[in-house]
């Protein structure tokens, strides 16, 4: 995964990506003046997770369409489907993650393709304007949504595009979506081997067929940590406000960057040891009595109290130090939670990890080193989309 620009825009097709399910159902419902999405079988199907920083949209495109359904499909929906599936970038803010596309999956008895789209939550106004310009309300009046934005933007959806939001619990949707995708995609789960050695480091598939119990660390704008003992048996045990939103906000302040991708690109070229104070900076070497290696960060940004040091650091160094600071804090909290819950597998998810192998490798190393090999840090390919998938799976045709 390499840095990708977030400067892409959602076109109406973004939201309209769901297509034609039973086109004959759509035709029938158009005649009856009822909404296509007021029944569980009608298309289009969308799942949406509106986070504090990033909004995630999943669209199910059925492939098992009958001739009657194809003939009955309305032209507007055909155009939207064609636009959505033939493009990966929509205007200036919307982006379809083509590498995550899942083909030949089964949802609610239909077989098709899952598409994954993201855009900054700060651009919700643009998203709704595009949806309105395409008369989306004529195709769908109910959207499955989770995340804080399901409440924050509910009135906007209703007033601006005449759509109702069927809201689903954020954590329940997260787990449902994760378990569904992990079970459906045989290459979903992996870990990093030799995370500190660039010449040997690689992603290794991990068999997650018997997962319980596991710790689920969801890193979005903030962080929530769940102990999961079964598909419907979990508890939120901890969290921190220092998450991906913190990293991006601080990087914007310190370096003048504007997007997450820019911040990660800067961090990739930086050296945090020019910003942080290490154990060896204090003790001259390793601190053996407590098993602290010399290159361990003892004080994040600890060298920035020196004017001379401040004059020598670069934007890249500051971005790298910010990333290391946030990641180390998350890893420390996750490790303590795992020890307290007596859980050995820690699964890290969330869009903070997108295009961010630096943090993943730091987390992999930290879990292994500080637990003396008893904790395994695991990662998932679809990172931040599980909530959107989970609420799509739960939709039963009724509005909340």
Automatic annotation (TrEMBL):
<protein>
    <recommendedName>
        <fullName>pantothenate kinase</fullName>
        <ecNumber>2.7.1.33</ecNumber>
    </recommendedName>
</protein>
<keyword id="KW-0067">ATP-binding</keyword>
<dbReference type="GO" id="GO:0005524">
    <property type="term" value="F:ATP binding"/>
</dbReference>
<keyword id="KW-0173">Coenzyme A biosynthesis</keyword>
<comment type="pathway">
    <text>Cofactor biosynthesis; coenzyme A biosynthesis; CoA from (R)-pantothenate: step 1/5.</text>
</comment>
<dbReference type="GO" id="GO:0005829">
    <property type="term" value="C:cytosol"/>
</dbReference>
<dbReference type="InterPro" id="IPR043129">
    <property type="entry name" value="ATPase_NBD"/>
</dbReference>
<dbReference type="GO" id="GO:0004594">
    <property type="term" value="F:pantothenate kinase activity"/>
</dbReference>
<keyword id="KW-0547">Nucleotide-binding</keyword>
<dbReference type="Pfam" id="PF03630">
    <property type="entry name" value="Fumble"/>
</dbReference>
<comment type="similarity">
    <text>Belongs to the type II pantothenate kinase family.</text>
</comment>
<dbReference type="GO" id="GO:0005634">
    <property type="term" value="C:nucleus"/>
</dbReference>
<keyword id="KW-0418">Kinase</keyword>
<dbReference type="GO" id="GO:0015937">
    <property type="term" value="P:coenzyme A biosynthetic process"/>
</dbReference>
<keyword id="KW-0808">Transferase</keyword>
<dbReference type="InterPro" id="IPR004567">
    <property type="entry name" value="Type_II_PanK"/>
</dbReference>
<keyword id="KW-0963">Cytoplasm</keyword>
């Amino acid at each position: 995964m390499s840095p990708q620009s977030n400067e892409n825009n959602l076109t109406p097709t973004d939201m309209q990506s769901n297509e034609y399910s039973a086109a004959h159902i759509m035709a029938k419902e158009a005649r009856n003046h009822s909404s296509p999405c007021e029944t569980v079988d009608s298309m289009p199907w969308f799942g949406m997770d509106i986070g504090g920083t990033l909004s995630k949209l999943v669209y199910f495109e059925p492939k098992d369409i009958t001739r009657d359904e194809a003939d009955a499909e309305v032209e507007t929906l055909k155009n939207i489907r064609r636009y959505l599936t033939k493009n990966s970038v929509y205007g200036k803010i919307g982006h379809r993650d083509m590498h995550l596309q899942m083909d030949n999956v089964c949802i609610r008895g239909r077989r098709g393709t899952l598409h994954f789209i993201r855009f900054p939550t700060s651009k919700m106004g643009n998203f709704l304007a595009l949806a309105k310009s395409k008369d989306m309300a004529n195709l769908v009046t109910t959207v499955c949504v989770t995340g804080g934005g399901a409440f924050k933007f509910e009135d906007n959806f209703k007033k601006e595009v005449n759509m109702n939001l069927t809201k689903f619990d954020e954590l329940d949707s997260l787990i449902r979506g994760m378990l569904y995708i992990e079970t459906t995609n045989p290459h979903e789960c992996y870990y990093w081997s030799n995370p500190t050695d660039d010449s040997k480091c690689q992603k290794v598939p991990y068999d997650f067929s018997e997962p319980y119990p596991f710790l689920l660390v969801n890193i979005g704008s903030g962080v929530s940590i769940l102990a999961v003992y079964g598909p419907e048996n979990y508890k939120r045990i901890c969290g921190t406000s220092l998450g991906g939103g913190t990293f991006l906000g601080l990087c914007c302040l310190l370096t003048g960057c504007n997007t997450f991708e820019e911040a990660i690109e800067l961090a990739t070229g930086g050296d945090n040891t020019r910003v942080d104070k290490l154990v060896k900076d204090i003790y001259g070497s390793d601190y053996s009595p407590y098993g602290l290696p010399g290159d361990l960060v003892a004080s994040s940004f600890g060298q920035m109290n020196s004017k001379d040091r401040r004059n020598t650091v670069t934007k890249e160094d500051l971005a790298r130090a910010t990333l290391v600071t946030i990641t180390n804090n998350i890893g420390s909290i996750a490790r303590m939670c795992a020890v307290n819950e007596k859980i050995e597998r820690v699964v890290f998810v969330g869009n903070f990890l997108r295009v961010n192998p630096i943090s993943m490798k730091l987390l992999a190393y930290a879990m292994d080193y500080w637990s003396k090999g008893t904790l395994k840090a695991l990662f998932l390919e679809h990172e931040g989309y599980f909530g959107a998938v989970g609420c799509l799976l739960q939709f039963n045709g009724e509005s909340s």
